[in-house]
TrEMBL record:
Its cofactor is Cu(2+). It is an enzyme of class 1 (oxidoreductase). This is lytic cellulose monooxygenase (C4-dehydrogenating). It comes from Cercophora scortea. It comes from the Eukaryota. Its EC number is 1.14.99.56. GO terms for cellular component: extracellular region.
Amino acid sequence: MPSILALLLAAGTSLLPSALAHSHINYLIINGLLYPGYDPTGRTHNRNSTVGWSTTAADDGFVPPSNYSSPDIICHVNGAPALAHAPVPQGAKIHLQWNGWPQSHHGPVLSYLAPCNSATGCSKVNKTALEWTKIDNSFPALVDETPSPPGDWATDTLIASNNSWLVGIPANLAPGPYVLRHEIIALHYANRKDGAQNYPQCVNLWVHSAQGVATPTKTLSLGAGLGTPATKLYKSTDAGVAVDIYTKLGTYVIPGPTVVAGVTPVPLAQQRSSVPTADGTPVLVMAGKTVPFPEPTGR
Ligand SMILES: *[C@@H]1O[C@H](CO)[C@@H](O)[C@H](O)[C@H]1NC(C)=O
Ligand SMILES: *[C@@H]1O[C@H](CO)[C@@H](O)[C@H](O)[C@H]1NC(C)=O
Ligand SMILES: *[C@@H]1O[C@H](CO)[C@@H](O)[C@H](O)[C@H]1NC(C)=O
Ligand SMILES: *[C@@H]1O[C@H](CO)[C@@H](O)[C@H](O)[C@H]1NC(C)=O
Ligand SMILES: [Cu+2]
């Protein structure tokens, strides 16, 4: 598909189907433990063991800039909270496994956290009220334009990492329930009106203190005015959204707010060494309680 797309782009045609191969997060791995994501394309889910938010994006499609102020930009089309949370120690690196990614769909890879501020977690959270803080912007998203644009982007690193991304949870993040909003912005059509494509994916996490690690001196508390509602993250006129990646850019302005002070994303160079193994028995957090992992269905 990428080569056909490249040919069609080169020919300047507008006869492309609107829904080419897209993707979702199939699963995540935290310290060797695997948690199922939500597959909108028809897999049967045991909602008790799925930490990925459900969506109705059955075509694995995207949210366009014209919908940046719609609730669909929060956690994808009709996004609804997962019941379960993956427990994650402060400072852990989370491996997010996308179900493939088309090479032509160059762009940045972004990650945000929003606290749920509830003893029962995120399963009933009001998504419009979530305040998002950026913890990763894939800096630099545009890696190399040689020998010719569009060149090498964060998505090319993601593809080279078996379609995965490593997100570091800040070591000093206040324990509790959070939604992780992970997103790719594909820019292959961003030179057209309303052409950028946002692929947001949400998963529930329950952050706890890491055993055997000194308590961080300064706790990172998110939300309460520090974060941004997802419907206010981007504008269709943003320099990093309305952009022609087929001309030489030199630099690229990553959309959205900057990464919160004191948090260092996993560098691009370390993304590629991310080949995880998953062989442990995970537990989940449901309504604030740690529970055994139910039999997953249709993994
Ligand atoms: C999900 O959990 C609820 C509450 O514990 C239980 O009643 C229900 O049977 C579970 N469903 C599945 C499919 O495991
Ligand atoms: C944008 O949002 C509107 C209103 O919710 C919806 O009807 C439309 O399908 C959305 N467009 C896309 C491409 O998702
Ligand atoms: C959800 O949050 C939004 C934004 O804060 C608010 O306007 C709305 O009333 C809330 N909805 C419910 C059902 O509480
Ligand atoms: C690459 O990802 C696929 C799922 O898309 C997975 O089945 C496979 O085990 C992964 N390979 C490695 C080396 O992690
Ligand atoms: Cu596509």
